[in-house]
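Weekly modeling sync, notes
Attendees: S.R. (lead), two postdocs, one rotation student

Agenda item 3: backlog of single-chain predictions. S.R. asked that every request posted to the team notebook include the full sequence so nobody has to chase files. The rotation student volunteered to paste the first one in as an example of the format we agreed on. Action items at the bottom.

Example entry:
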Amino acid sequence: MTLHILEAAIIAGLLVYIIYLQLQLSKKNIFIETTVKRLSGIEKTRSMEEMVEFLRDINRAGLYNPVTPDKFLDESVTNFILENDNKLKIFMHYTRDEYDAQNILKVGFRFANSFYKTALPVTRDKLDMIIKHNSQKYYGHYLIIISISSETVNYFSSEIKKAGLKNISFENILTESAPLRNENGEPVYLLPHQFIKGYINHISGEITQNPDYDPAFISSAFEKNLLTIK
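Predicted structure, as returned to the notebook:
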């Protein structure tokens, strides 16, 4: 008799859990359907501020809501990222451990082939910044800011184009040491640490600046790299 009661209790519990899951699924389906409807024509009906608030609504809905608050939109953070953006090419890279962030400040930023694989270009378009941040923030709490003078980028990009070089970008030139090969046989480059402005803990909002930061840094090795590749 006791066994039958236990079985009935387990079955009842499973039924309640199944009903709960169905309700949660229904809520998410309704949310997705509503979101799609709101997105249709959003560019025609909403201002930039309303679109940013809409993204916050999605976060608050619970599907992508982090356990801890995010300081990415704090004025001190965005000001640090975008400072002198009219004269710079700015990129964001996320890392999980602060040790790695500190090492990048001291040594430089390593990347295979192109750092566009893990570093996102930044513009003053706040909506674009939020979308990129939300797509990458789960890779780590530490946000590396890479800033390079636009003059430097434009010069070496122009020289690469003049030389008719293919599959080469300016960041492949901006290294003081010869690229190494990783386990996949890909060249690994080291961007000098002078181009690392600092890093941000986007959970706490704490900013760590690189004392050696110099976005206009030029090394004689850059021109040598260009001649070698030619």
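Discussion: group reviewed the output briefly. The chain is about 50% helix and 20% strand.
Action items: rotation student to repeat for the remaining queue; S.R. to check formatting next week.
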